Amino acid sequence: MKKLFALCLALTLVFSLAGCGSNAASDTDAKSEGVMTYAEYAAAELDSQVVIETYVQAKQSWWDNKATLYTQDKDGAYFIYNMTCSEEDYAKLVPGTKIKVTGYKAEWAGEIEIAEGATFEIEDGSYIAEATDVTSLLGTDELINHQNEFVSFKGMTVEAANDNGDAFMYNWDGSGEDGNDLYFKVSLNGQTYTFTVESYLCDNTTDVYAAVKNLKVGDTVDMEGFLYWYEGVNPHITSVTVK
User: CA 216 to CA 223: how far, in whole Å?
Assistant: First the structure.
């Protein structure tokens, strides 16, 4: 009987510990009450209210108490445009910071975002996303499923950005100057795509801005950035490496 009791007690402890481990894992992944999963956010109607928990990956800009952020969790990414934010709080939003955001889902030129005027709270937790290689998805319908995520593109070829044969342009039409957005074209398997260095995100003091200005037509490059959308795929590039 003593041996049977001891065996039962041991089994009880094993199952108890296993249960604790399982709960701990689910607690880590669980959303707070009233917070949407990424799948629920993606399925939500445009102009409907959304509540999400996400992690800052990069800050694009702050002005007039409004912050624009690239954010992501383990399931998907959220572009947050002109969120209500003091300058003091903006300084706290370092990469990895967890935030709870309440706002309205919107679309602009194909880009899905949380619209101007959203509010947020800083929460405990940290997460930095690794770049997902989406090179093979270029030109497919599946690519948009990764919209706003931190992604990479590998082995692409630099093409002429304009009729003059330049490797890049300031602004989309070449009308700008140093300090403005950089636009450049890269190709893969006979298809050409326009990529951007967004000057609010990566200004003319950054390595990526200098790297794009030094590109030559025909260079083979690997890149990382955020999968922004504007009338089609228009990644905001944060790093470029010439092979």
Answer: 15
Residue 199 contacts residue 178 (beta carbons within 8 Å): no
Check residue 116 and report its DSSP letter: T
Write down the pTM of the prediction: 0.86
The predicted model gives 27-53 an average pLDDT of 88
- Band the pLDDT of 32: cuts 50, 70, 90: confident
Per the rule left: phi > 0, alpha: psi between -120 and 50, beta: everything else, 44 is beta
Give per-residue pLDDT as tens, 217-230. Answer: 999 999 999 999 99
Residue (of 190, 186, 183) closest to 223 by Cα position: 186
Please name the residue that has the structure tokens 């893969």.
188
Q: Which residues pair with 133 in a beta bridge?
A: 152
Query: Residue 123 forms beta bridges with which residues?
Result: 98
Q: What is the maximal distance between C-alpha atoms in the chain?
A: 91
Q: What's the pLDDT at 29?
A: 54
Give pLDDT tens digits for 105-124.
Answer: 999 999 999 999 999 999 99
The percent of the chain in helix, strand and coil, each rounded to the nearest 5, is: 25, 40, 35
pLDDT at 214: 98
What per-residue string of b and e applies to 153-173 under the rule 16 or more CB within 10 Å gives b?
A: bbebebbebeeeeebbbbeee
Contact criterion met (CB below 8 Å) for 167 and 160: yes
CB neighbours of residue 63 within 10 Å: 11
Q: How far apart are CA 234 and CA 241, in angstroms?
A: 18
| C-alpha pair distances (Å), 120 with each of 35, 89, 147 | 12, 10, 22
